[in-house]
């Protein structure tokens, strides 16, 4: 083999080795490139998720701050009203009745708006909650609600009677003219039996269609007057709603809606929508 052929062979071998090295480098680049692309995509996804998380946290913080603002404004309004009331109490000259009426008007308007919404809110909330349960659960829940109300009311009545008989608050003497031949009829002192009967009778009150629902209760009289007078139980109309009657009717009505499976679906949807509307209206009134 001549020297020229040897050099040509060595040059060809070197070129082949160089080409093999280039091919190996290109293969390494191709194998590394998907990993780098995946890492780049993963990093971009992580950054996007972090940005979205920060934004969601800011949105949640705004909602929380909105709830806290209502409490803050309520406390500020109470403190401001108390301070202004104390400062304006000794105003000279004193406020005229018309000026006092102007001062009371915003508060009375707010309270009347709440009182206007409280009745449909109570009825729709109870009926909607009971109607969406199955019959067994609704019956148990309604029974527990009525029993709880009866128990708490009975305990309050017993406690009140014990305190009245023990410390006798508001005891006073009244001059009573009694005829010699016949005792005069007068209201009697309310007893525990009268209170329990009032509680039971108010379950089915017939006055649930008015704004201030009349509630019949037995009038009270001191024990000395009761001893002098002939007992003739009388009733008077008490202010305020008959809440027990409303709760009882709403529970029973919701229970019967839950028993009507497909036929009661329109009523369930109606009271659920009514409850949602009333909650939004109350939120608007409060804000």
From TrEMBL:
InterPro entries for this protein: DAACS (IPR050746), Na-dicarboxylate_symporter (IPR001991), Na-dicarboxylate_symporter_CS (IPR018107), Na:dicarbo_symporter_sf (IPR036458)
This protein's record includes keyword Ribonucleoprotein: no
Cellular location(s): Membrane
Keywords: Glycoprotein, Membrane, Symport, Transmembrane, Transmembrane helix, Transport
UniProt xrefs under SUPFAM superfamilies: Proton glutamate symport protein (SSF118215)
TM stretches of this protein: 69-88, 109-131, 143-164, 241-259
GO cellular component, one term: plasma membrane
Region (Disordered): 1-44
Major location (coarse): membrane
The family this protein is said to belong to: Belongs to the dicarboxylate/amino acid:cation symporter (DAACS) (TC 2.A.23) family.
UniProt-recorded name of the protein: Amino acid transporter
Gene source species: Trichinella nativa
